[in-house]
Amino acid sequence: MFAPGAHSEGRLSPGVRAAYVAWFALWLLVYLDYFGWSFLLWFCCMANVYAFVGCLTGGTLWFSLAAVTALGVHVVYALDFAAALAQLPSLGATDYMFDPTRPLLVRGLSLFHLWMPCLLGYAILKLGYDRRAFAIQTTVAWCVLPVCYLAFDPSLDTNDAIFPLVHGHPFDRDFNINWVHAFYDRPDAHADTGRLWSVMFGYPLLFQLPVHRALLALTHRPGAVATAAALPGHAEVR
User: Which residues form the domain of 68?
Assistant: First the structure.
């Protein structure tokens, strides 16, 4: 849809871009101090990096990557968080938000899951959607997920002074990156590389592809907001 390097710099509100860059700097410093560098491998955090680059460059592709990478995750997070607040049955994926042992600032910054869809939706409406995002992020996921599986073991790795226990077993969910070892913090004694393969195919098909198709439909429907490729000075790939 877009030629490599095509962008619509200046289309996003300077105030929005500046606010996100400031938030990103704080988020990055706090998360690096608390979690260490490994948190950047989480797809939702990776999407924050994409959005940061998008705010700096105005590049459509970066916001498209962020949307494909994390919009589906953000929706699940928001629903789970709402259910937990209402004391309804939930997946438990947001239980850490109610853990008093986790710093309040860390938990507060984690609320980006709730407002990030608004920023990404705004950016897509302004800049359009780059259809290359799905293929690129799928390739990135297939590179990152084996690293998450082979380099980290939530039953052995922790940053906590006291190793967290789940049902009496050592398990630090912060190192169950992208849930390659188990569903959230539910240790699976029989988990093997079969789970890795299921995540490698399941994530693109269940989370990325629906978002990709929805954004294509929204940005290519009759009367949709003009994309950057359709504007003067932006070449379109045919």
Answer: 14-151+192-230
